[in-house]
Amino acid sequence: xxxxxxxxxxxxxxxxxxxxxxxxxxxxxxxxxxxxxxxxxxxxxxxxxxxxxxxxxxxxxxxxxxxxxxxxxxxxxxxxxxxxxxxxxxxxxxxxxxxxxxxxxxxxxxxxxxxxxxxxxxxxxxxxxxxxxxxxxxxxxxxxxxxxxxxxxxxxxxxxxxxxxxxxxxxxxxxxxxxxxxxxxxxxxxxxxxxxxxxxxxxxxxxxxxxxxxxxxxxxxxxxxxxxxxxxxxxxxxxxxxxxxxxxxxxxxxxxxxxxxxxxxxxxxxxxxxxxxxxxxxxxxxxxxxxxxxxxxxxxxxxxxxxxxxxxxxxxxxxxxxxxxxxxxxxxxxxxxxxxxxxxxxxxxxxxxxxxxxxxxxxxxxxxxxxxxxxxxxxxxxxxxxxxxxxxxxxxxxxxxxxxxxxxxxxxxxxxxxxxxxxxxxxxxxxxxxxxxxxxxxxxxxxxxxxxxxxxxxxxxxxxxxxxxxxxxxxxxxxxxxxxxxxxxxxxxxxxxxxxxxxxxxxxxxxxxxxxxxxxxxxxxxxxxxxxxxxxxxxxxxxxxxxxxxxxxxxxxxxxxxxxxxxxxxxxxxxxxxxxxxxxxxxxxx
Length: 590
Prior knowledge:
Blueprint: H1 14-34, E1 54-61, H2 71-88, E2 91-93, E3 99-100, H3 101-105, E4 116-121, E5 124-129, H4 134-147, E6 150-153, E7 182-184, E8 189-195, E9 199-206, E10 229-230, H5 242-246, E11 255-259, H6 265-274, E12 280-283, H7 287-290, E13 304-307, H8 309-319, H9 327-347, E14 352-358, H10 362-368, E15 375-379, H11 385-398, H12 412-424, E16 428-430, H13 433-439, E17 443-445, E18 463-466, H14 476-483, E19 490-493, E20 510-512, E21 523-526, H15 535-542, E22 547-550, E23 561-564, H16 569-580
Parallel strand pairs: 5-10, 11-12, 11-14, 12-13, 14-15, 15-16, 16-17, 18-19, 18-21, 19-20, 21-22, 22-23
Antiparallel strand pairs: 1-9, 2-8, 3-7, 4-5, 6-7, 8-9
Helix pairs in contact: 8-9, 9-10, 10-12, 14-16
């Protein structure tokens, strides 16, 4: 029996590859000439499925059981499928028109982001740019058969890979541009292609009632032998193709990538605890170099750190010129998130199997398709957009005079993308107790990072401290109503943003302050409808200062925390009064 290092067959030669190249160029030229007058159109795509029912679904695993030596080109195949899915998902083909795989996708090149995957060529499984797309063309063919579409053109592989659909003659190979898959239907139809964490999924929608086409007759294995070699496992190291498949790849089974933005200490701690050697950390800026404390993440030793400096600097430049509130500011913030997400997506290595993602980048990454074929967790910094807007609408109903509660609503496509991405995510990591409760068992609640306490010195006359601007979403209207009941204390607040002519604190004993005023406050009050990062409330609790806040602030249980319901000025006033003027302790009778 021959050893793996000395197979019982001849090694492929360069002249054979050269002859194959010449043959393919001739065939490609011939196909291009033939298609000059009959080339199928490239059909447009729509992100919205419409009312047509799903008439066919086919799916296949992306990864299967692979060994470390097979992993690099399998990861390359999945990356190629991610790229191709963007070209095919949502394609709508009119009745009677031909759908062409290659016309829709175009040529696969490195410039377009395609990479090396395994391709069956001349009896060998070899690395090739765009390799692995036959899995997609095969599933489209199978779905087309199920949906009753006319098969205008289809080619089977010359050899059968054991365990593949070729054993049932359900495969459809493609090779630019002359080995194509072409379909047609008497009714309009829509193609959908998606990658879940584990599977490639193809769906066809149509309102037609075409009968399923007869199942193709299975070919006999004798006519389609198995491949005679595999560059990753055949052991023929002297083959000129072999180094291209293995030399540049470590024998690892993938790594994780952390796609991060503004630093939260809770997320920094969690990511360090769950990062492994050779994981990638994508950070907007090098905090030590650019002296930006918010970006000073602390990746563990052995992690590879990459920065997206240019989009981050552009985002920072634009934000300095934005108004403090309003739709213009919110649109600009979303654009900055999109730019950073797209920069990160271009940097993710095909061999990355798992992602940890900052929530503000999530919908934009979902749109790029980079999450397909991967598992991912989300660092939850806020309410989901749909829930956030629902809560703002409730606040607007309670305070119709507000000029800020209804000043911005996100595009429906962005809401849909975030909702779909959150549904596909694994763990939703957050220190915010209310957000964690919203997601139930899917949430991974981490502890808030408690800051170093302040040296406190209560002021006289007493005042309470609002650690936010005079805005409706921070509970300014409720707090103003409570102050009108005579609490016996003044108010200091942060920030310059206000409700304009509807300023809730007009005529009240309220004045602007700074964060330093917290040390002399009698209590911190935050009756917010929306609060995602209550840092000063945490500082107050750590410093022994009572906190009156809504459950929506997401604070941890604490003896000094007094929770009040949102939009209940009477209950808020009663709790503040009890905190400022506690009842004297009584002794039990002996």
